[in-house]
Amino acid sequence: MDFSKYLPLSQRQPGNEENVTGDRRAEIAAVVREAHRLTMSTPEGERDARARTFAANAGLHLPAPPADSADALPELADAIETGDRRRIAELERVVEAALRLADAVGQHAEIALLTLGAVAMFASTTAPFDRRAAISGHTVVAVDGDWRLGQGPELHGTAEGIVRFLTGLSDVPPRPPAR
Questions:
Q1: Nearest-CA neighbor of 70 among 107, 99, 29, 33?
Q2: Where are the alpha helices (H) located in 41-110, listed in sequence order?
Q3: What are the b/e assignments for 82-107, b being 16+ CB within 10 Å?
Q4: What is the C-alpha separation between 97 and 125, in angstroms, rounded?
Q5: pTM across the whole model
Q6: Pick from 29, 57, 77, 174: CA 20 to 30 A from residue 35's CA?
């Protein structure tokens, strides 16, 4: 799937775009709920520190100690979902923090493929030069998601792998398809 067809003013078929928005509250809240799941998978004595590290990396604020930070994550997700509008840059930061948390606890972060695609699209324009140069002039294809970015010869990777590369969490770039 070419992500450009989801953008307003793109070359796709005209239709009702009243629900098109740059607001990322729902996606951010879902990632915070996933961070809660990951945090709860750790031993009880580690949960507070893991939740606080996630929140700090994500640029989110948790209640001050002695409140249990891990238990505060679902409330934080609810507050985000019903609160003020959130932007794609915030989503990128929260996704990156969740992937760091998943690495730290040795688990896989379950993040929606379209959320990863939105983050990849944003990161493809904001990543350090060497990361942008690695994908420049190519179509980056998520083999496990129904999305692609850019134009040119194809580079393949998993949705998470592409995001990890563009955000600097991995040095493994998307690769040309096997022949």
A1: 33
A2: 44-58, 69-82, 88-105
A3: eeeebebebbbbbbbbbbbbbebbee
A4: 19
A5: 0.88
A6: 174
